[in-house]
Amino acid sequence: MIKRCEWCGDDPLYVKYHDEEWGVPVHDDRKHFEMIILDGAQAGLSWITILRKRENYRKAFYNFNPEIVAGYGEKKIEELLNNPGIIRNKLKIKSAITNAQAFLKIQKEFGSFDKYIWQFVGGKPIVNKWKSIKELPATSKESDAMSKDLKKRGFKFVGSTICYAYMQAAGMVNDHIVSCFRYKEVRKFY
Known about the structure:
single chain, mainly alpha, Endonuclease III, domain 1, two-stranded parallel sheet, 10 helices
């Protein structure tokens, strides 16, 4: 029997996410933008709720194209507020637009968002050695620094807890428990 991190339970969508995505280092700017939008939308909700709406988000946000999302105006905001396929929270929708604009500024300044974001972990994943899900932190000094800098640059819904979840998902930290089959597998990507 395959040993997994227990947080993913047995929901097939959650298991697939755990087994194929979570903790794999991301270096694609479009994927980074997707994760920022989805992690911000998740604030106060469960991750499985967001995963179930992910395809609707892809359609609503033009496959997470920051150039298009940065230009969304009031008409598009109203359209999104009436879209039952996404989280219809005005602050979260507006933050996606604000974050897209800030994202583009970072790309311009650093050459890529990837180059900017990986500096918070020194350019390589932090490999933890947790034996139990209970050991996983909600934040770290790296997520604190990331949150502070993103906020300074105009990002919204990027508190330290959200940033840490983002770091876990984007493979900036390996927080699979050591007995999970993915703990060693994701290290192949380093």
